[in-house]
Structure formats: C-alpha cells, structure tokens
Specification:
702 residues, elongated
Amino acid sequence: MANKSSLYGNVISSPIVSFNGGLDTRIPQNAAPNTFNDATNVSVTTQGLLTFRPGLKRWLPDTVDTVFEMYPVLYNDQMYYFVCDDEVVKFCQDGDTTWTTCGGSNSVTRNVRYTFIQAENKLYVANGNDKSRYIDLTTMDMVVFVSVTDPSNAPTLAAFGTGLTFSATPTGGCPYPIYYSINYNGAIGQTANSPIVTGWVSIDRTDWVGDNSYGLTVTFNNTAPSGATSVNLWIATAASTGSITNSDMLMVANALPIASTTFADNGSLQPILGGGTAPDDNSTEGFVATYGCEIDGRVFLWGIVGDEYALMIGGDPGNAFDFTPTHNGFRLVMNEGTNYYPTNLVSFRNNQSEPAWTMLYSNTQGVSKQAVIASETVNYGSLSFVVWTMTDQGRSVPTASSPYAGFVYNNSLFFPTATTIEELTTKPTNFYVLSVTNIAIPITSVYQSISASQLPNIVGCGIDDKMYFSCAVDGYDYNNIILVYDYTDPQNPRWYPWNIRQNWIGVVSPPNTDFFLYVSQDNHIFKLEQGTVAQDENSEGVPTPFDYGATGPISGLTPDHASYLAIVQALFYVLDVIGEIDVTINYAMASPSGLLKYKSRTKNINGPDYVVGSDGNWSDYQYQFLPSEMPLLGWGGNPIFNPADTEQPAQSYRQPVPVNEVVNEMQWQFASNSFASNGPTAATFRGVSYEGVNIGPKGDIQ
C-alpha cells in the first residue's frame, strides 16, 4: 500500500472537469474522459456539469382513460388543450379542474393511440379506428361526414368526328377494347366506382392523334347525387385478368364540374398513374386514417386502413379537409404492391436543398426511401385539374420506424429506425448534399434494447436545441425513458437519459410565456419543470423524491492504461448540495497473474436537509435553488429562497475519498440517496480528480 504521508511532495492531479461528452454506453475502458457510462435521471448543463433532470409538475386534470397526445390550440387568443378520452374528444384550459366534452356527433374509439391535425379552425382526429371526423373550433362541436350515393349506371359511349369507328361489340373493324367509368366526389372522399362500360374502337387509343378530329363522347348516364361536388372519369384499354375490374381502371380526368354530363375524350390525356385505381368502396363518409400532419395549410393523411399505400392530400386553402380533386385534393398511391409503406411526411428539402414535402417509408428489409411529393396542373381545353406525383430521390436511408417521431428541427430531419436514430441533413464536409448520420452511436446498446413491437410507439419532438425521444427500452412494453439529444453545442452534441414512465411527450409554447415539455403518464398530464430539488409531483400535487446519478468511464493515466498511479485519494467537487449524495471511486489493480481486480470506496456527502417553506401552496417550492443556466421550463417565476434559522442554504463540497493503493484504472460514481435523506436531494457534479504519484508502467514489470 502506498504511504500517503510520504507522497505529498510528488502528488499529481488527474482531473475530469467536464461531462459534455454525455452518455456513452459502449465499453467503459475505451470511453472518453468527459463521458459517463451509465446514468439515471440526469442532465448535462451548457458548461458540461452533471445535474438532475426537470421534475414532473401537476398541470391538467386527470382523464378517465389512458391519455396519449394532448394537443394545444391557440384560438381567439386563448389556449385550449384537447384529448381523446372516455369515447369522446374533450378540452380544457389552464386552471380548469375538469374536462369539457365537445358537442356534436362526438364519438371516438377509446384507449387507442391517436393524433390531432389542425387546419382552418378544424381539429381532425386520426386513430386508425374511426372514419373521418373533426372538431369545429368555432363551435367546439364534432362534425362527421354524410354519405354520397354511388352511381348505379355505366356511362354510354359514342364516336365523334371522322376517322374513328365505335362499336358496342367486337368486330373486325373495331378490334380494340376500351373501358370507361365514373364516380363522384363528396365533401371529403369519393363514391365507389360506377359500373364499367365496354366498347371497341377501330384505332387503339394510344394511337389517337389527340387533336379533336375524332374521339369518344362519354355520357355519364347518372344524375348527380345529393352532396356530390364533382365527377371523376376512369379509363382502361385492357383487362388484366380477361374480365374488366376496378383494379384495371385508371383516372384520366378528375374534378369535372358537377353540372357536366358528358366528356369528349380525344386521346390527348394520359392516365394519372399516381391516382391509383378506381375505388371499390365509398369514402364519402371519410376513411380510417392512422396518421397525419399539416404542412403549409394543407392536410395529409396516411396509414389508411384498407388502402395502406395511399397518401390522402387535402385541398387548397379553404378546403384543407377535402381530399377529393374538387379543390385539388388527391389520393396519391405510392409503391403499390411493393414492400414500402408511407411512415413519415415532413416539410423538408430535396437533394438540391430546395424546399420540398418529403416522405419516408417503412420496410421489412430495413431499407427505406426518400421521396418528394409535388403537384402539377394538367390543362385540357377549357378544363384544368391538379395531379400529384411522387419523385424518388434515389436515396436509400434506414427504415423510419415510428410515425410519431420523425420531425424537422434546425434544418435537419430526425427519425428513429430499427437500430438507431438518424439525422438527415447537409454538411459543409459533404458539399451541402443531403446525407444521413447515425447520431445514436454512443447509446446503441440502450436504443437496441427496444423491442421491435415498441418501435412504432417512439414519440419525438424538438425545442431549444434539444431533441427528445420517448422510448420503451430494456424490453419494456411501455415507454419508460426519454432519451435527450442535446445539441446546444453543435460541435459537441451529447445524450442523457430521463427515466420517466410516459405515454407521450410534446412541446407547448403559449403566447407571451415560456415554452415547456409536457408528459402524458397513464391518465395524468404533467409539465416538466426544472426545480432545485429532485422530486416529481403526482396529479394531486404531492411531491415524491426521485434519485439520479451517473457512473463514469474506466480511465487510466494514459490511453493504454499502462501507467500506474499510487493514488492517495479521489477528490469529488459537488455544488449546491441538499440531502445526501454518495460519491464512489472504483479502481483496479493488476495481480501477478495479470487479472484485474476491482475495489471501491464510497463517501457520503451530507448536505443540509430539505425544509419546506412556510408560505403554503401545493408542494411549496420556496426552498429551491435554480442553477443559473437551468431556467424553469414552464410558466411561473423562479422560486424565492427566504432563509431562516431552520432553513440552511445549499452547500458545496470538495469531498476526498481516500484510497492509498497502486492502481492503473479508476472510475467515478455520483448518486443521490433520497432514502437516507428522508426527502428530496439536489446536487450539481462539477468534477473529480484522481490524486497521487504517477509511477509509470513499473507496476507491469515482473
């Protein structure tokens, strides 16, 4: 054992004074000194110090059922908060003690994940179970859609002009089949297809001259039903199975005026391949969408039950929830029959860094695509209509695993995959070409402990240069952690964990007040607020302490861990301590056989007890100290400390942990102990210094 008293004149310090490398769960012997290998409920400050996460603070009333997304709406300069609960949509405002049930035809499936999409003072509900419905924010009533009757008759055909012969039956002079049908657009969707008319012509349609010298007049042969807004025309020139079906019929003209009864087809219009095939089913009461978003005032829905390859595109401003061609809405069918299904749609950019609506896909082979969604206008005589297209960007990216966690922040697109979390962005080193970066390499073992069944339930959001991912790690079947990707220092981003059970996370940014994160937990909704003691409130405002801490890397004096230190002590520097904080050094000594044997030493730092102030309120935050760079994340000012004889301020400590051994590896641990404190604790870990005499590699020489 080293003689402590004889070493003072030669003692060196091997300090670790920053933890801005964040969580790195890879092999601890190879981790950087500024990282930590394991952690619970910690944050890293902008100065690279370790402290505890924000606490849960009671906020909105409890719900009856499990609550997922809570959607904030600013309407008429007032904030409203919406949830799906107990088979209805409800809302409340700050300070309310109960939820108010929306009126109208208010009904939703209970206890399923849902998402809200807002546009034009309407709040659409998508949950993968219910047909289209929305809350009208002007009345707070739910609106559902009325069915439009399907067309019952097939169109009729007749040739016009000279040069083309038509026959209702095949003849030697008319050997080429041609098929037409129609359907109607309603307020949100389309009717089923009409019966299909079959005819034969003397010239294959692909060879028509297209100059109106000849063609076919299609008479719709149906009276427009109540609620119909426009007409679509469908066409085919071959039956794939020998008998014509709706799956052969492609859209050739859309959103024809509802008053029109005929259409003169001269062959110049080409079938709209992205419009899918003629519908078998009536969607005028809406469709069952699972996911959705709003971009530039236009609403998009996908995950359509029974139509999984489709992207439903809302209409022009004023008609955001009309997904029919009447107001330039569209049903865009993408990659039909392949292994690619739409997962995430965001407003991002294309390969040329031009603004674009970008779609990512899921795929059972682990490979996705990036595609751009755009529209173009087709003119036909006095008519014009809008066609939407998908353009593959020629880029293979990892599969997007969750439709709730793909989001754009600060010119980057973040999305979780089956094995990691990716960032799609441009960088100077890549000549500003879009490239994919795996940002979760340091926490691979944590992320890859997420069960495949839980990947679609990851929820993500970003604010204030931090990205938050709610996940179910370690095989749990519910989200039990928030992984924080802190990008406040772009040159040195870092991860750290907040161990909070939750169903959903999101950002609320009311006007004229600070933004904050909210957490849905079972049937409770909390806001996250940085206190100066580590405690969470329950839904009644009763606080409960939570513990926090971290374990550092296994470090040596040199990268090869071959230099030995006759260590006198490990000196821990801990700031603003309340309650008991335990600091530990683990260290290794090589035995003659070469086997590393690990030992540990622990000291308890006993700061002042947490004492509740005398001014009342739910949990009385009067005895709290906010680190200068950890502002409150929610409404309310910083608490004021008014010390009295029984309320001592937080204190800072330089705590030595004696060792007096010859070692070649050291590892620090820092942990709160709320049980021993009999109450909440607080501390900010500034650093640790391993102090002793560097004796070089002599310990390895035998």
